[in-house]
Design brief:
single chain, about 300 residues, alpha+beta, six-stranded mixed β-sheet, 6 strands, elongated
Length: about 300
């Protein structure tokens, strides 16, 4: 049990954390109101926990919105090393070493239980990225196992192997284009200077701000009559929905990839046409909530 002095020290140490949580609370409430994290609950909890466990072991080589991709080395390797760390702690660790690891393990377990409980109560934020703070005490447990004094150089060797696995995963992540942010400079170059009768429709969160900067454009509050509409986003979304959403006067004149995931699809009319801003902003044309940009 903690003495009175230690309890006060713990309480004082928690104050900055609680203060920061209070400052972040309005942001969390605003995001919840707009359902920015609604995509999380649509995925099976088991798959999300699987991806979170892979992150804990060093691999982030997967999509938050789908199945994990293959890794440069089998994920079983760092898993076996992590289990070896636990085995060292349980078999060779002193009472003091195991006691310190238990504190870290309990901290991690409680931190993991909070989002699990919130998910059961209907506020589901259980996702690998949101669990990153939980990894800190859990990795301390692994470090305690590798660092058991009686394990000697064997523990240090296992720790080095575990770190090398993390390095291999990191290098692989940096190497794969599909795990990077979209590079919108090529898309902006293909769009060119925006004309008064032209609008660009793009993914609001992944491309809206970059294209605003590169094109010197701004979000439309109202649309003039248009002769040309450029879609920068999902090619399949444009193919599936353009004929239904755009007025019949618009016909596709160009479609070309401009980044790893994004395609530029250009639709043109022979005459000026009134187009609904609301329908363009719904995002079906680009595969996500859309920004509609017009020239300065």
């Amino acid at each position: 049990m903690l003495g009175a002095g230690n309890r006060r020290a713990v309480a004082v140490a928690l104050l900055p954390i609680l203060a920061m949580a209070a400052l972040l609370a309005p942001i969390a409430l605003e995001q919840r109101e707009h359902a920015h994290a609604g995509w999380i609950a649509s995925q099976p909890p088991g798959r999300r926990l699987e991806r979170a466990a892979a992150k804990l072991l060093g691999s982030d080589n997967g999509s938050e919105h789908g199945k994990r991709a293959s890794d440069p080395i089998p994920l079983a390797v760092p898993l076996a090393l992590a289990l070896a760390s636990i085995a060292l702690l349980l078999t060779l660790g002193s009472d003091e070493e195991r006691r310190g690891a238990r504190v870290a393990a309990a901290t991690g377990a409680i931190a993991l239980a909070v989002p699990l409980l919130l998910a059961l109560l209907g506020s589901d934020y259980l996702d690998g990225r949101n669990l990153l703070p939980v990894f800190v005490p859990l990795l301390i447990v692994l470090g305690a196992g590798f660092g058991v004094e009686r394990a000697g150089f064997a523990g240090l060797g296992l720790a080095a192997a575990f770190c090398l696995c993390g390095l291999a995963f990191t290098l692989e992540i940096d190497r794969l284009p599909r795990l990077q942010r979209e590079d919108l400079r090529n898309a902006a170059a293909q769009v060119g200077e925006l004309k008064p009768d032209e609008a660009v429709v793009t993914d609001r969160y992944a491309a809206g701000w970059p294209l605003r900067y590169y094109l010197d454009a701004h979000p439309a509050s109202a649309l003039p009559r248009l002769r040309e509409i450029v879609l920068v986003g999902s090619a399949s979304a444009a193919e599936e929905h353009a004929h239904r959403i755009l007025p019949a006067a618009f016909h596709e004149v160009e479609a070309r990839p401009v980044s790893y995931d994004f395609t530029l699809s250009r639709y043109r009319s022979s005459r000026l046409v009134r187009v609904s801003l609301h329908r363009l902003e719904r995002g079906a044309l680009v595969g996500g909530r859309a920004s509609v940009l017009v020239g300065p």
